[in-house]
From TrEMBL:
Gene3D superfamilies: Fe,Mn superoxide dismutase (SOD) domain, Iron/manganese superoxide dismutase, C-terminal domain. One of its GO terms (cellular component) is cytoplasm. It comes from the Bacteria. Residues 97-197 form the Manganese/iron superoxide dismutase C-terminal domain. Residues 2-87 form the Manganese/iron superoxide dismutase N-terminal domain. Mn(2+) binds at H26, H81, D165, H169. Its EC number is 1.15.1.1. Keywords: Metal-binding, Oxidoreductase. It comes from Candidatus Vogelbacteria bacterium RIFOXYB1_FULL_42_16. The keyword Oxidoreductase applies. Belongs to the iron/manganese superoxide dismutase family. One of its GO terms (molecular function) is superoxide dismutase activity. This is Superoxide dismutase.
Length: 204
């Protein structure tokens, strides 16, 4: 069965940027629901339930037709939230990437400021619900992309490095319709050390 990874921080530890009540609902309710519905959908396919969620999403098209949509929706929601909660953490002073990740961002965007603007603009502009991503392609070139609903960049053959959830459940209690303010707050809680670890792993 797919289970929620334990958070590395308390619900209130991302204050004042992410409020505790939203974190409780987002992780304990919404994320849990995706896991529950994914497990339920895979009941008739125990062999698929033994695979990792990354394997399932990377090859959705090869799955039995009846399970493709549930894996895309519920599996995508499960995986996307796993990733999102993993790359954020309490506010710290090191609000910039470092090391080879920083070098790659400058190489592919010109500067961190250029990257932040492109990421923010594209994420804020998503129509309806979705996700903003920093991803690497098979040549390890970095780019910003967005996905609708709970679609995963893994399905597109891309390797996620950073994710921002702009479904309204992620921010509406605190920010209402001010999505731009939420995305700015997101940059205050990115754990760049963890993003660097992910970047290093996919480059090995």
């Amino acid at each position: 069965m797919f289970q929620l990874p334990a958070l590395k921080y308390g619900f209130d530890e991302l204050e004042p940027y992410f409020d505790g009540e939203t974190m409780r609902l987002h992780s304990g309710k919404h994320h849990q629901t995706y896991a529950d519905k994914l497990n339920s959908a895979l009941t008739a396919w125990p062999d698929l339930a033994q695979k990792s969620i990354e394997e399932l999403l990377a090859d959705v098209g090869s799955l039995p037709e009846a399970i493709q949509k549930p894996v895309r929706n519920f599996g995508g929601g499960y995986a996307n939230h796993n990733f999102f909660f993993d790359i954020i953490g309490p506010h710290r002073d090191d609000l910039l990437p470092a090391g080879k990740l920083a070098e790659a961002i400058v190489r592919d965007f010109g500067s961190f400021e250029n990257f932040k603007k492109e990421f923010s603009d594209k994420t804020i502009s998503i129509f309806g619900s979705g996700w903003g991503w920093l991803v690497a392609d098979t040549a390890d070139h970095l780019s910003v992309t967005t996905t609708a609903n709970q679609d995963s960049p893994l399905t597109l053959g891309l390797k996620p490095l950073l994710a921002c959830d702009v479904w309204e459940h992620a921010y509406y209690l605190k920010y209402q319709n001010r999505r731009a303010d939420f995305v700015e707050a997101f940059f205050q809680v990115i754990d760049w050390g963890r993003v660097e670890e992910i970047f290093t792993k996919i480059n090995n």
